[in-house]
Design a protein that fits this description.
It is an enzyme of class 1 (oxidoreductase). Keywords: Glyoxylate bypass, Magnesium, Metal-binding, NADP, Oxidoreductase, Tricarboxylic acid cycle. This is Isocitrate dehydrogenase [NADP]. Pfam families: IDH (PF03971). The chain starts with 5 loop residues before the first strand and ends with a helix. It folds into three domains: 304 residues, no CATH class; 176 residues, no CATH class; 78 residues. A ten-stranded mixed beta sheet has the order 2-1-3-24-23-4-15-22-20-21, sandwiched between helices. With 740 residues, the chain is of the alpha/beta class. Bound molecules: NADPH dihydro-nicotinamide-adenine-dinucleotide phosphate (NDP), 2-oxoglutaric acid and magnesium ion. The site of 2-oxoglutaric acid has 9 residues, from helix 19. Magnesium ion binds next to helix 19.
Length: 740
């Protein structure tokens, strides 16, 4: 049976989804004559909610379950998927999306915060599968290769982004735990044989609760378990709030509550309660009564206040104001609107927030809207050292210089829900004092921890095949680039010690003659890499899943100003290709700007790069020569776009995302018209190029004249298709050429 050759394009959320409405019609127009079918899959938060509740919808409202379809596809060799960033929803985002869908006539149930019966429990469990990072871990059936292409790096060297200066007396620092956290409590083993395990909690009286049963573990899989002690966490947080006040630095919390959707909201909640300690001491009972849950942020408390009588509400608001003015200063997400770092767990996400701070002289914004030195609180110490070492380096050497600095590509272990990013279904907030054990089918206790009520226990897994694939990818990249390659692994950490044994074994499967491959601890790897980067030298980082995420925002943001310009390739383990567009998120701030002044500053460069590799992959798999020509010429177009600085500007009434798409189309058509490998494409695109260049002035005028006024697309999570398409394709002259 032959399957139709196609490229699957994901439809997502927020800024990238807006951009798709402008860019996808161009892609379809350019690839149509080459026998390439582009199929879209809607993986937006709204579509994922609707797909989970068919029994609540009328037939015409039902949607297919795109995630389930893609989960199958990624295991097939013919998979060729362009994946744009999507929302990993925190609870406040999930609730907002539900409310919007309900207001649009979809009779889906409310999110039951505290389910009262089995039916509510079932509904909550459906929503919990959508919550947080529910897309990426499913699609990522391969490890990742993220890097800044040469043209992007050269562009940044010639057109450096702004970099805030660093002074040696900056008070900015990272605060992390020195005991009792996940890092210090970790235990890890490699299973010599396949087995099935249970996770069992035994309380002080000997009563057993099965937290999980029947989990199959493969031969040679690494499993580890650890706890975050509640007591140690609270002590640590109290010290940090006090210290922030003493040192007059901003208290800021950097977590990954979206991806680490079970553990990190709990930690976030503790931080909110500790920061507003007096408030909770005084009004805790009232808050319990109205169902305040600050695991969803301080914003949840503010919202719930509306349920109180006016007098009580005013009293609490006055107390909040008092604490905010007399307690430690808190970092602000939006000082104009009074939104703090503790309001919404998805507003400050560590991979983007820490590099943004480092780029801004180590400062964040205070309540007056001014920059101030910061205490970056990262409770678990597993990875915090990377940021403290980087901050120390900047204090000593000053800010990095984008015109001369080297680059740090990443090879990341990610496949099959590797490590922490696959631990959500094995993470538990412990109900009572006792122990938690991982027990195999023969009753052997594999891992055991003493626990107290409120501790967070979790188990992570990483399978052997992904590790072998990861080591191979690292050697391939090292060989292709002849660049020193560092595995960021700490022999003192239990999990890493197991991984190091495997790395040493599997490196022997490859020809590493003449390659510089090392294994260094996180801090040593950071210092080694930063020293080289400063000297203009490149270093490949080979890391586990969390550091993959952190480093592929950190280095791009320092080197080229944004992770949007990264090439993110995921060679799928069964032969297919998943091409992620950039290494960042869905930029909610860009949507705010677009809605208020019709200017979209989102940069689609990552998408252009991803599509070019996808076309190349398509051409090899389907022996389609034209696809390869389309890919090559698309890369030429991206180079020219950078060279001519036709990326989107941040300011209204200048070239935006739509304008940059016009130039991409113009240069792509030009490159196709200039090539001589395929006569039909040459003829077709000579006409297109002539039409586009003849109309350049008119089109640009139309794309800029439309800006400046608010836009209404009737929704945030499920906007009106016609309105959004109209807003994103405002140039009739351009549309006429593309449509024909
Ligand atoms: N792969 C995925 O699916 C990912 C999804 N996410 C999700 O995205 C949302 C936002 O996450 P957040 O951590 O704020 O990170 P973002 O990467 O969305 O935003 C951080 C900032 O980076 C800049 N930026 C990012 N991408 C672009 C781009 N293409 N063009 C121009 N600037 C860009 C913007 O800076 P400025 O405002 O200065 O212009 C933006 O405000 C969350 O829902 C999160 O879960 C996050 C990471 C990856
Ligand atoms: O899936 C997510 O929530 C975020 C993923 C991410 O940040 C990354 O892969 O860089
Ligand atoms: Mg990331």
């Amino acid at each position: 049976m032959t399957k139709t050759a196609k490229i699957v394009y994901t439809k997502t959320d927020e800024a990238p989804a807006l951009a798709t409405r402008s860019f996808l019609p161009i892609v379809e127009a350019f690839t149509k004559s080459s026998g390439i079918v582009i199929e879209t899959k809607d993986i937006s938060l709204a579509a994922r909610i609707l797909a989970a509740f068919p029994d609540f919808l009328s037939d015409d409202q039902k949607v297919t379950d795109a995630i389930a379809e893609l989960a199958e596809l990624v295991k097939q060799p013919e998979a060729n998927i362009i994946k744009l960033p999507n929302i990993s929803a925190s609870v406040p985002q999930l609730m907002a999306a539900i409310e919007e869908l309900q207001s649009k006539g979809f009779k889906i149930p409310n999110y039951p915060d505290e389910p009262k019966d089995d039916s509510e429990k079932e509904i909550k469990s459906r929503y919990d599968k959508i919550k947080g990072s529910a897309v990426n871990p499913v699609l990522r059936e391969g490890n990742s290769d993220r890097r800044a292409p040469k043209a992007v790096k050269n562009y940044a060297k010639k057109n450096p982004h702004s970099m805030g200066a660093w002074s040696s007396d900056s008070k900015t620092h990272v605060a992390t735990m020195s005991k009792g956290d996940f890092a210090h409590n970790e235990k890890s083993i490699t299973l010599p044989e396949a087995t099935t395990i249970s996770i069992v909690h035994t309380d002080a009286k000997g009563n057993k609760t099965y937290l999980k049963e029947g989990l199959d573990i493969l031969k040679d899989e690494i499993i580890d378990a650890t706890i975050m002690s509640k007591k140690a966490l609270l002590e640590f947080l109290e010290e940090q709030v006090e210290d922030a006040l003493d040192k007059s630095v901003l208290f800021s919390l950097h977590m990954k509550a979206t991806m680490m959707k079970v553990s990190d909201p709990i930690i976030f909640g503790h931080a909110v309660r500790v920061f507003f300690k007096d408030l909770f001491d005084k009004h805790g009972k009232t808050f319990d009564k109205i169902g305040v849950d600050v695991n969803n942020g301080f914003g949840n408390l503010l919202e719930k206040l509306s349920e109180l009588p006016e007098e009580k509400r005013d009293e609490i608001r006055a107390d909040i104001r008092y604490e905010l003015t007399h307690g430690a200063d808190v970092a602000m997400v939006n000082s104009d609107r009074g939104i703090t770092n503790l309001h919404v767990p998805s507003d400050v996400i560590i991979d983007a927030s820490m590099p943004a701070m480092i780029r801004t002289s180590g400062q964040m914004w205070n309540a007056e809207g001014k920059q101030q030195d910061t205490k970056a609180v990262i409770p678990d110490s597993s990875y915090a050292g990377v940021y403290s070492a980087t901050i120390d380096f900047c204090k000593k050497h000053g800010a990095f210089d984008p015109t001369t600095m080297g680059t740090v590509p990443n090879v990341g272990l990610m496949a099959q829900k590797a490590e922490e990013y696959g631990s959500h279904d094995k993470t538990f907030e412990i109900a009572s004092k006792g122990k938690v054990e991982v027990i195999d089918t023969n009753g052997n206790v594999l891992l055991s921890h003493k626990v107290e009520a409120g501790d967070i226990w979790r188990m992570c897994q990483v399978k052997d095949a992904p590790i072998q694939d990861w080591v191979k990818l690292a050697v391939t990249r090292a060989r292709a680039t002849e660049t020193p390659t560092v595995f960021w692994l700490d022999k003192k950490r239990a999990h890493d010690a197991e991984l190091i044994k495997k790395v040493n074994t599997y490196l022997k499967d490859h020809d590493t003659e003449g390659l510089d491959i090392r294994i260094l601890s996180l801090v040593d790897a950071t210092n080694f890499t930063l020293k080289r980067i400063k000297e203009g030298k490149d270093t490949i980082s080979v890391t586990g899943n969390v550091l993959r995420d952190y480093l592929t925002d950190l280095f791009p943001i320092l080197e080229v100003g944004t992770s949007a310009k990264m090439l993110s390739i995921v060679p799928l383990m069964n032969g297919g290709g998943l091409f992620e567009t950039g290494a960042g998120g869905s930029a909610p701030k860009h949507v705010q700007q677009f809605l208020s002044e019709d200017h979209l500053r989102w940069d689609s460069l990552g998408e252009f790069l991803a599509l070019a590799v996808s076309l190349e992959h398509f051409s090899i798999v389907n022996s389609n020569k034209k696809a390869s020509i389309l890919g090559e010429t698309l890369d030429d177009a991206s180079d020219k776009l950078l060279e001519n600085r036709k990326g989107p500007s941040r300011k209204v009434n200048e070239l935006d995302n739509r304008g940059s798409h016009f130039y991409l189309a113009l240069y792509w058509a030009e490159a196709l018209a200039n090539q001589d490998k395929d006569a039909a494409l040459k003829t077709e695109f000579t006409t297109v190029f002539n039409a586009l260049s003849r109309n350049e002035d008119t089109i640009l005028k139309e794309l800029i004249d439309c800006q400046g006024e608010p836009v209404n697309i009737e929704g945030y999570y499920l906007p009106n298709e016609n309105l959004i398409s109209k807003a994103m394709r405002p140039s009739d002259s351009f549309n006429a050429i593309i449509n024909s």
